[in-house]
Each structure stands twice: as structure tokens, then as C-alpha cells.
Amino acid sequence: MDEQTADAASRHVPVLLERCVELLAPALAAPGAVLVDCTLGMGGHTEGVLRAIEHVRVVGIDRDPQALALASERLAPFGERFTGVHAVYDEIGDVVERLGLPGVQGVLMDLGVSSLQLDEAERGFAYAHDAPLDMRMDPTTGPTAADVLNTYDERDIARVLRVYGEERFAARIARGVVRFRERTPLTRTSELVDIVRAGVPAATRRTGGHPAKRTFQALRIEVNGELAALERALPAAIDVLAVGGRIVVESYQSLEDRLVKRALAAGATSSAPPDLPVEPVTHAPYLRLLTRGAEEADEAELARNPRAQSVRLRAAERLRPTPDHLRTPRRAA
Q: Which residues form a coiled coil (predicted)?
């Protein structure tokens, strides 16, 4: 293992790895089983699965070319058991189809920003370091955080911060952004942090962690279209699961977890009208929930990995194909 690959392994402690493997293992027990790791990152979860289940094949998807390269080098010892794909995870259906797979036995999603993106200061994800206002998970395409802040009108900036960051002082921060850019465009994370500090009352700044946390989260979600992609990815991921296959999703903030909860609960609930005397087979649940609510990290996990602080894990098993009347149309290429 060279220095760069070793660095990737040391920098990324996968959240709830043992629990993820435990939940996925029954579906991956048969020879030829395939897992799609929709959020490959630096490959920690995938490596854990490949080591724990010796015959399984993993397809790793990531939109970040740097993460994909690091993970692919780290996982090279597993040979053909690992396939890396540069894509956004809402393209999972197309990825599986291109690889000629009739279905997969497992899907794993570890949502949010990766360790690599947080630790690489120049990517602009971290409010603790001065860096360009970028925040793109795929730095080769799309608008940056600076583009959002310098081109959106005040009302839209406030909407992004309020909806995606659940920021109480969104209007004040948006007003500060517009005043700043009237003099000069925003280009640095430190400029945004100063604007947030000025917009959040002093009493509030003393509690609840860094005052810019919610603003940075909101901009990251907007820049990368994260919630829209997740809303498309969840039904697409369920669609590619073979009967008996399992999906495990780790989310880190309430907006993500709400979408995951809704998608899994919909599959685990009868779609028949409540007043029907007999439930038609076509309306019976097609998922079985494997977790009671959302599981959180215990004290031992938090001691190993502080980034597990806000994790919420949900999982489900496919019981039967999704009924035609509940299928989500495939996204146009």
C-alpha cells in the first residue's frame, strides 16, 4: 500500500461499518452477489464489505473524481471484485444496466459530505479554513458556492439558507451577502464566515456550535443538488434491488433522513385503500423495514469516530417487485 492509499485509509473511518455489514450480509451471502456502494468516498465501507464477505462484488459510485481515484487505488488488491464508476448516485439504474446486471443484492448510501471533501481545505466545504468558495463534490462541473452567493437574489439566498440549512437568521445573512457583494464579489470562505457572524446575534453564537455550520450545509446542498438527487436516487436504488436484496442508508441531517424515512416507509406500507375488505396482492408492501426507526451511533462508535455524532441509519429488505402503479419513471439520460 503506497503512501497516498495508506493516507486514504487513515483519513476515513467508516461510520457504523460493522452494523452496515451485519445488515447487508444476509442478502450478500450467495455467490455472485453484488453490492452498489452509491457513495464510495475513500472506500472505507466498500473495503469492509469486501473483507467480510469474500465472494461479493462491489460497484462503487462517486461523483468526485479525486475520491474515486483514491478509493480505486486503495481497493486495487481486490481485483475484479471492485468496479469504480464516476457518476451521481441517482444514475444507479443506468449504471447497473450498463454493467449488464439484472439486479443487485445490496445498496449502501452514506450521505452528505465525505471525509476527503472536508479535509481538503481548498475544496471550500469547511468553515474552519479559509479557502475558495467552491463546495462542488465534482469540481469539474457546475456552479460553485461563489456563483450562488454572487448571482442569486437576496430572497433566493435566504430561501436556500432557511430550507436547506434550517437557519433562523437566513434573511439577515442573505442581506449581509448582498451588501458585501455590492462592493466586491465573494470569493473566500472566510468572507462568508464573517458575514454569518455579523448576521447571527451574539447570544445565539454562544451556543449550538459554529454559527456558519448551517449556512455552509445549505450552500453545499444547493451547489450539488443533493436533496433532489437523493429524492430520485432512493426509488431508483430500490428498483435495482433483487427480491431479498437489502438497502442501507446513513444520513446526517434531518432533511435527508426525512426523505429516506418516507421512501422506505412507503414501500413497507400497503397502498390499498383502507376500507377494502381484502388487500389486493398488487397493493401489498414490497419492503420490510429492518430497523426500528433510525439507529444512532453508540458511545463506543462515537469514541472511535466523532463524525458519527449525527448519523441516522435506516435499512429495508425487498419482499417482491415494486408494483407497476408505484414505479417511478426512469430519469431521462
A: none
Comparing 258 with 278, the larger pLDDT belongs to 258
**Closest CA relative to residue 204, chosen from 168, 230, 231:** 168
Domain that holds residue 181: 135-224
Q: Which of 202, 224, 246 is the last residue in one of the domains?
A: 224
* 254 and 213 belong to one structural domain: no
Q: Output the pLDDT for position 13.
A: 84
Tell me: do 230 and 219 sit in the same domain.
Answer: no
Question: Looking at 207, 224, 241, which one is the last position of a domain?
Answer: 224
Percent helix, strand, coil in the chain (nearest 5)?
Answer: 50, 15, 35
Q: How many whole angstroms separate alpha carbon 257 and alpha carbon 240? A: 21
User: Which residues are annotated as part of the binding site for S-adenosyl-L-methionine?
Assistant: 43-45, 62, 89, 110, 117
CA atoms of 45 and 29, how far apart (whole Å) = 17
Per-residue pLDDT reduced to its tens digit, 60-87: 999 999 999 999 999 999 999 999 999 9
Q: What is the distance between the alpha carbons of residues 267 and 301, in angstroms, rounded to a whole number?
A: 30
Mean pLDDT of the region 305-327: 88
Closest residue by Cα to residue 73 from 24, 131, 8: 8
Annotated binding site: 43-45, 62, 89, 110, 117
Verify that 140 and 276 share a domain, yes or no. no
Residue 262 CA to chain centroid, in angstroms? 16
- Tell whether the model's pLDDT for residue 333 goes beyond 50: no
Global confidence as pTM = 0.89
How many angstroms separate the Cα of 319 from the Cα of each of 1, 266, 292, 316, 323?
41, 13, 17, 9, 11
Tell whether 249 is covered by a domain: yes
Q: Convert the pLDDT of each residue in 166-217 to its tens digit.
A: 999 999 999 999 999 999 999 999 999 999 999 998 877 767 678 999 999 9
pLDDT tens digit string along 21-34?
999 999 999 999 99
Q: In the sheet that 287-289 helps form, which strands lie side by side, from edge to edge?
A: 82-86, 57-62, 34-37, 104-110, 241-251, 312-318, 287-289
